[in-house]
Specification:
CATH architecture of one domain: 3-Layer(aba) Sandwich
Largest sheet: 8 strands, antiparallel
CATH class of one domain: Alpha Beta
Number of strands: 23
Oligomer: single chain
Distance between the termini: 39 Å
Structural class: alpha+beta
Radius of gyration: 27 Å
CATH topology of one domain: Aminopeptidase
Length: 630
């Protein structure tokens, strides 16, 4: 593993020679290289002034050199970034580039200029630099905005790595609500999001086994390094991850005894025992949709949030009362939203406009499929003619009871069910963001006063005249919170200004062998990088489910690039699956084994090798080159 250190006196000549060998790698002739030599030379006495650093192997061999130069207030230049030819493609350039960005951010640099050799332009684009005007002759100019980790992200875990506990199923199971799925496997898939519970994990604790290649790729994309521990396969068939850890005393000591913060998906009694924290179930009372609605009403009573409206909500005495209410409102031309007291991602929620009631065959038929148990009846908020419809505000209350604002995001919601979210600068229009942030901060203060500690969000819909209307609170981590974490990390690694989208479900054309899922993810990452976007596989265990899918995180500098990356990923996921359809059919007839392809076949079997060859010869090149039709 290479490391970066400051250049030392006496190394100038050797570094100059490395620079010229690296420049010659691109095939320039001797005359051109001789003309470049004076400008590219590293001279003794300049090492400190040019802030020259080197990448060094574990054996002490210098593999690359970079410099941070011409510091002038908030502007500086990347003077050198050259890698020994034998080390090109091994991550040395990435290591040096990120080191320069980190040093620049610490020095207060907010604009870093890069004049790149044309052959290196793809590297800088993939690293997040943005093309800029004013390129010198024969060079390509980029710039990037170095930044430090966001203040809220430092406060979330105290600025240190954390241990992430993926107790999604355990959190859901504590609510006695028919809308909450008691089968843990679906929730265990979402526990993969534990990789992103903070910007930098020390260890991941996961219920299902995950492919090792997934962790390596995520670590590469987010600059983790190899030191992140993974403890997986701990609760394949049961919900109780925290108790599964406690039943392994050595693992429990490893997880809790390192002095690092523990970050769960959400607070539970078993997690309290694992973490040594008091369990106060009333802290989670606003996870209830009716309790959250009452809280919103109290906040609005004072009249301090004129830009916010609250939909009316009633509790139906029974299912027949809910049917009568829906029927009455439909006759009046009004829409209704039916909700269970608890639910995840829209489970237990149904939107019933008059048209939908008619299409279903009447209100009684429209209620079929909803879970048994009490129902909340809520006024349907008509959507605006343009602009985003579904928004969320994220924040958290730290251990000392201080609320922190994280930000606002746009969610993708279809028929009341959450599908994903996008975070980043100007994603939420300013006219909506200001009242939304003010109201979300007020909710944070109330949660802090109630004794709650941890992450929370407030979900909103936007009405026909452009007012946010709060609909529920979540006292746990969520998909949008994961997107915020990744945005904070990428801003440090690649410069400020990332838009990040979490897409909960990308369908695969077929169930794939474990190794093929890893290869698909690596190729999608390479394809997205070619256009300056970032692909991070977020949920991979869904690829081994009967109806295979993956969840992904995508990042780019603008919405158009983000949409293009999502289209490429969706098309690639379906196309590569088609090549493995016959393999998947065989797998469907076998017993599923979590953490590997359900067929149990060796990845070296003759049939799979043939399928892999077909895929490599056709679809894979189209994915990587970006020529796959979307």
């Amino acid at each position: 593993m290479a490391k970066v250190r400051a250049a030392r006196d006496g190394e100038a000549a050797a570094l100059s020679a490395l620079v010229m060998r690296s420049k010659a790698y691109w095939g320039y002739d001797a005359g051109f290289l001789a003309a470049c030599a004076p400008e590219l030379a590293v001279r003794e006495g300049e090492l400190a002034d040019r802030r020259i650093a080197v990448a060094e192997s574990g054996a002490g061999r210098v593999l690359g050199v970079a410099s941070l130069e011409a510091l002038d207030g908030e502007m500086a230049r990347l003077g050198l970034l050259f890698v020994e030819p034998s080390a090109i493609g091994r991550g040395v350039g990435r290591l040096l580039y990120r080191d320069v960005l980190g040093r620049a951010a610490e020095l207060g640099v907010r604009r870093l200029l890069i004049d790149s050799d044309p052959h290196a332009a793809g590297f800088y684009r993939a690293m997040g630099a943005v093309a800029a005007a004013g390129s010198p002759p024969g060079l390509v100019r980029f710039e990037v905005a170095p930044t430090v980790l966001a203040a809220w992200a430092r406060a979330w875990t105290g600025g240190v790595p954390a241990v992430h506990v993926g107790n999604v199923a355990e959190f859901n199971a504590q609510f006695a609500d028919a809308s909450v799925d008691r089968e843990p496997l679906a929730a265990h898939d979402y526990a993969c999001l534990a990789a992103f519970y903070s910007p930098y994990p020390a260890a991941l604790v996961l219920p299902r086994a995950v492919p090792p290649g997934w962790i390596r790729l995520v670590g590469r994309q987010l600059g983790w390094g190899p030191e992140v521990e993974v403890h997986d396969g701990l609760a394949e068939r049961e919900a109780g991850l925290s108790d599964a850890v406690r039943s392994r005393p050595e693992l429990a000591r490893r997880v809790t005894g390192r002095g690092l913060p523990l970050v769960p998906w959400g607070r539970t009694e078993p997690y309290g025992r694992l973490a040594g924290l008091p369990w106060r179930p009333r802290e989670l009372r606003y996870e209830s949709k009716s309790a959250a609605h009452a809280l919103f009403a109290r906040i609005l009573e004072g009249g301090g949030h004129p830009g916010i409206t609250l939909p009316a909500q009633w509790r139906a005495a029974n299912r027949w009362a809910a049917v009568r209410t829906v029927a009455s409102r439909a006759r009046a031309g009004l829409g209704t939203v039916l909700k269970s007291e608890h639910g995840v991602g829209g489970s237990g929620t149904r939107v019933l406009t008059p048209a939908l009631v008619r299409a279903a065959g009447g209100p009684r038929a429209a209620l079929r499929g909803l879970p048994r148990g009490p129902l909340l009846v809520e006024e349907y908020v008509e959507a605006p003619a343009r602009g985003p419809r579904d928004l969320t505000y994220d924040g958290f209350v730290d251990g000392g009871g201080r609320p922190h604002e994280v930000g606002a995001a746009v969610m993708e919601v279809c028929d009341g069910a959450y599908r994903g979210a996008t975070v980043g600068p100007a994603v939420v229009p300013a006219a909506l963001e200001e009242p939304l942030r003010a109201f979300g901060a007020a909710v944070g203060r109330e949660l802090a006063a109630s004794g709650y500690r941890g992450w929370f969000d407030v979900d909103f819909v936007v009405d026909a005249v452009g007012r946010p209307a709060p609909t529920e609170a979540n006292l746990r981590l969520t998909g949008p919170s994961v997107a915020f974490m990744v945005a904070a990390r990428l801003d440090v690694l690649r410069g400020a200004g990332h838009l990040v989208r979490i897409v909960d479900r990308v369908e695969l054309g077929a169930r794939l062998p474990e190794g093929q899922v890893e290869l698909l993810c690596a190729d999608l990452a390479q394809a997205c990088a070619g256009s300056g976007a970032v692909f991070v596989p977020a949920i991979v265990t869904g690829a081994f489910d009967p109806a295979p899918w993956i969840g992904v995180l995508l990042a780019a500098r603008d919405g158009g690039a983000l949409d293009a990356a999502e289209a490429l990923v969706r098309a690639g996921a379906l196309a590569v699956g088609a090549g493995f359809a016959d393999f998947s059919d065989a797998a469907d007839r076998a017993v599923a084994r979590p953490g590997r392809h359900p067929s149990g076949q060796s990845s070296k079997s003759k049939g799979e090798r043939g399928l892999r060859s077909r895929w490599q010869a056709t679809i894979r090149p189209a994915i990587i080159s970006g020529t796959l039709k979307v």
